[in-house]
Amino acid sequence: MQRRQPLLLGAWAIAAIAVVTTACTGGADNTPAVGRLDVSLSRPRVALLSPVEVTYTFTVAPDAPALGARKVFAHFLDANDELMWADDHDPPTPTAEWKPGQTIEYTRTMFVGRHPYVGAARVVAGLYSPDSGERLKLSNEDRGDRSYVVANFELLPQTENVFVVFKDGWHPAETVTEGVSRVEWQWTKKEATVAFRNPARDVVLYVEADNPSGSANAAQQLEVRLGDQVLGTVPLRRDGPAVQKVPITAAQMGSADMVELRFIADKTFVPALEPGGAAGDSRELGGRVFHASVQ
Fold first, then answer.
1. pTM (2 d.p.)
2. How far apart are CA 31 and CA 45, in angstroms?
3. How does pLDDT run across 3-13, given as a tens digit for each residue?
4. How many domains does the chain have?
């Protein structure tokens, strides 16, 4: 499952939000469009702190020249055009390999952050050069700076989510600010528990996690269990977090008022005991979890 590549931590770093435009300053922009971009969200109404799957579809013009190395910028704006968060990224198929007339489509999963805003929102996107900042012209309706409104959605309060409680087995939360985004994560110990009220229907658990440690003792996966049932596993990559979806049926959750899930790391390590590790960090670390959400 793809997500906003290096929009998180470790090998994961947020892409630049401000993109310099040099190609369309003054006068009409008569440059031929290199193609069209369409974006769709998996849900038209998205709650704060919930996951959403964003599908990008590029249709390259039949007479498009070679595009070279380009990045995608995707900016999520409120009704006042204020930037809330960004998903700037490299497409899984590099733009240098795109061919005239080709359609490129891929889906990325992201989590909406904490924002002091609910209401109408939109996605503004396009392509740009990572070296010069120059944006390419697309055939979508231009906002005047080679950025294009490609999707509209509604942002809902966090209370629309199933509330997930991080219970036992978690280290205190850590945060870092990247651009306009505040990124938060918690390390598990060998075993960690989350709980939520039984929704009495089938759900999907979304887990975004990684383990950036190069230690031979670093966990490579978290097993997800409900009682004695193994529901699935969450891979822990070293090169940045990934999102794993774990389906859970109503029958598996039973009739109890609360559902408790256990995340069990296959291995753990202590940074203070690692060569060159943090001398004062004696924590037992399993996996680094950025989000655990039930939809």
1. 0.82
2. 36
3. 443 333 332 23
4. 2
